[in-house]
Structure formats: C-alpha cells, structure tokens
Amino acid sequence: MAAAAAARGALAGILRRWAPRALPLSAPSARCVGHGPAPAAAPLWTPRLLGENRPRAGTPSVLSSVTPLLPSLLQQPARTLTYCSLRKGKRKSVKSVVKRFLRLHSGLWVRRKAGYKKKLWKKSAARKKRLRELVLCTRTQCKLLDKMTTSFWKRRTWYVDDPYQKYHDRTNLRV
Predict the structure, then answer these.
(1) 4-31: pLDDT as tens digits
(2) Which residues pair with residue 112 across a beta bridge?
(3) What DSSP element (H or E) covers 102?
(4) Among candidates 170, 50, 162, which has minimal Cα distance to 109?
(5) Is the distance from CB of 145 to CB of 137 less than 8 angstroms?
(6) Strand 109-112 relative to strand 134-136: parallel, antiparallel, unpaired?
C-alpha cells in the first residue's frame, strides 16, 4: 500500500516536471477570492501521439520519458533477505525475526499485535487487553520467516512449564 502511494507520488512528480498542465488543477484556496474555476470550453490538456506536433525538437515527450521508469516504480519490494557469514558463507538468521516472533513446532509463527507496549497511558483497559493477545502469521509470512531463519530456530524445544505447549502440535487445522 505504501509502495503504491510512493510510486504514485514519484510518477506525479515526473509528470509535473515534463507536463505541468497535465495534472488536474486543485480547487482555489481560501485566499484566492474572485478567481473562479477555469472555463469548461477550453480543455487544459490534450493527449498527443508520439512524434506528433512536438513543440520543440529537443524536448522529449512525456510518455517516452516516463515509460522506462514504470517497471521500477510499480515493482513491489520483497524481503527475502538472508544474511551470510563472511568466513564460510553459511546462511545466518535475521536477529529481528528471532527477537519478535516465536515459531511453533507445527510451522506456524506467532507474534504480538503492533503497538502493544506503546503509549499505554492513553489506551483503555479493554484495548490494552486486546493488544496483549498473540496473533498467528499468515502462510506467506510463515514461509518468509522460515527463509530468514536457520534450522536451529526450527528445531523442537522442550521447556519446563512451557505456556505454548498446547499450541505446538496442530490438531484439526489445515494450512
């Protein structure tokens, strides 16, 4: 969602630079008294084909300057980062994943809700209770987190009085 907004903003900046009249005009501000909207009879901008009625020979058209940038702007970022050691080149775990998530033996990953320890003074008791709950990650998130950790974190561990013991083995639940 944020990547799409950034791509839209970058595209608008490029278009504004090459064709300032191509973007729709905003409503007049409160200070501009007496200026009405533009007359509807004259269009603000008319699309042109490439090479047709160019204003100057040296100026590139908007479409030819924006087209090469579109694939890089619209491409979604992916976090498939796996760290490698410098000595042997082995894969290393991403430490933030290990600190923030818990992997159950069934392969599911558990996390806390976002903001569960931020600005608690202004949150109600019910909201604080909801934020303390744990959330299961989706299938794609689980796959990504498995890629970002080594086999050490995927082993089964046995702890005395483990509060997650009943959640490690999955029953009647399809992935």
Answers:
(1) 666 666 666 655 655 545 444 444 444 4
(2) 134
(3) strand 102-103
(4) 170
(5) yes
(6) antiparallel
